[in-house]
Specification:
3-stranded antiparallel sheet, alpha+beta, motor protein, Kinesin_motor_dom_sf, nucleotide-binding, Kinesin, 7 helices, 6-stranded mixed sheet, P-loop_NTPase, binds adenosine-5'-triphosphate, microtubule motor activity, 27% helix
Length: 292
C-alpha cells in the first residue's frame, strides 16, 4: 500500500430486513451517523457507538425498479456504486501504482457479503464494478509503449480444501495444494489464471465460477455460500523503455468473499450443512488470529 494512505480500511454495512426478520416483527437496533455506527440494546436501551472508516446505511431509503435495481430514494442510502467508489476504487488506484491489494467481506451468514462483493442480478457488487472500471481505463490507453495485461482466477476453500472454480469437475478428494515460493510468495499450484481481454470475458468467467461455487439453503439464508471465495485479478503493465528493454509492473487484486459465521441452532444445520458450518467457523477464527 502507498505510504500516503491508511494501509487498512474497515467499513460496515447494514442491509434491509429479509422476509424471515419481517415476519418475526424484528426491530432495527443499528443506527448510523457519518462514520459512526451505534447499536442499542432493545431491553435496557443502552447504546454503544463504534467508529469505522465507512458506515453504510442500506437498510431503507431505496425503491426497487421493475428491473430489480435498488435505487437511492433518500440521501442516507448507500448503494452499490457508493460502496465501490469508497472501497473498490482505492484498490484499483493501488493496482495502477503496482501495489497488491485485498478486500475481504466478513460477517454473519446472511448479512450481505455476497451482495456487496458480487451482487445479485442487476445490483452489481464491488467485484464486477471494479473489473468494469479497470477495463474502461485499459481501453482508453493510447500509449503504444505500455501494454496492459489482465488475468483472472477464482477459487473456493470448501471444507478446508482448495478448488478451482473455473474448472467444472468437482474433484472427489484432494484439492489444490498451497505452496510458497521465495519470489512469488504464496500461490496455489495448478490454479488456472485465465488471460482476459475485456470486461465481457471476466463477466462470463465470474458467472461460471459463481455457478460452480458451493451454496445451499439454510434457515438463515436461502442462498448461503458454504465456502470462502478468492478472486484474483492479476494486472501487468509492461512498459517499453527508450533502450528497447521492457519493465513490468505487476499487482494482484485479491477480492475475498468469506463464508459467514453461523450458529447451528439458528441455521438449522445437520449433516453436510453442519460439517460445512463447523469448517467455516474454525477457519474464520483462524483468520481472526492471523489478522490479530
Ligand atoms: N445491501 C443490501 N440491499 C438489499 N438486499 C441485500 C443487501 N445485502 C444483502 N441483501 C440480501 O440479503 C440476502 C443475504 O445476502 P447474502 O447472500 O449476500 O449474504 P451472505 O453474507 O453472503 O451470506 P452467507 O455467508 O450465508 O453466504 C440476499 O437475498 C441479498 O440479496
Amino acid at each position: 500500500m502507498p505510504s500516503n494512505s491508511d494501509s487498512v480500511k474497515v467499513a460496515v454495512r447494514v442491509r434491509p430486513f429479509n422476509q424471515r426478520e419481517r415476519n418475526a416483527g424484528s426491530k432495527c437496533v443499528i443506527s448510523m451517523n457519518g462514520n459512526s455506527t451505534t447499536i442499542t440494546d432493545p431491553d435496557s436501551g443502552q447504546t454503544k457507538a463504534f467508529s469505522f472508516d465507512h458506515s453504510y446505511w442500506s437498510h431503507d431509503g431505496f425503491t426497487e425498479t421493475k428491473d430489480g435495481v435498488y435505487m437511492r430514494e433518500a440521501d442516507h442510502y448507500a448503494d452499490q456504486r457508493q460502496v465501490f467508489s469508497d472501497l473498490g476504487k482505492g484498490v484499483l488506484d493501488n493496482a495502477w501504482q503496482g501495489y497488491n491489494a485485498a478486500l475481504f467481506a466478513y460477517g454473519q451468514t446472511g448479512s450481505g457479503k455476497s451482495y456487496s462483493m458480487i451482487g445479485y442480478g442487476p445490483n452489481k457488487g464491488i467485484v464486477p464494478i471494479t473489473c468494469e472500471e479497470l477495463f474502461k481505463v485499459i481501453e482508453s490507453n493510447k500509449d503504444k509503449d505500455k501494454q496492459l495485461q489482465v488475468s483472472f482466477s477464482m477459487l473456493e476453500i470448501y471444507n478446508e480444501k482448495v478448488r478451482d472454480l473455473l474448472v467444472k469437475s468437482k474433484a472427489e478428494t484432494g484439492g489444490l495444494k498451497i505452496r510458497q515460493d521465495q519470489k512469488a510468495g504464496f500461490y496455489v499450484e495448478g490454479l488456472k489464471h485465465v488471460p482476459v481481454r475485456n470486461y465481457k470475458e471476466i463477466e462470463k468467467l465470474m458467472e461460471q465460477g459463481t455457478v460452480n461455487r458451493t451454496t445451499a439453503s439454510t434457515n438463515m439464508n436461502a442462498t448461503s455460500s458454504r465456502s470462502h471465495m478468492v478472486i484474483t485479478i492479476r494486472f501487468n503493465q509492461v512498459i517499453m523503455g527508450a533502450d528497447g528493454k521492457s519493465n513490468t509492473r505487476s499487482s494482484d487484486i485479491n477480492l475475498v468473499d468469506l463464508a459467514g459465521s453461523e450458529r447451528s441452532s439458528s441455521t438449522g444445520a445437520t449433516g453436510d450443512r453442519l460439517r460445512e458450518g463447523s469448517a467455516i467457523n474454525q477457519s474464520l477464527s483462524t483468520l481472526g488470529n492471523v489478522i490479530r
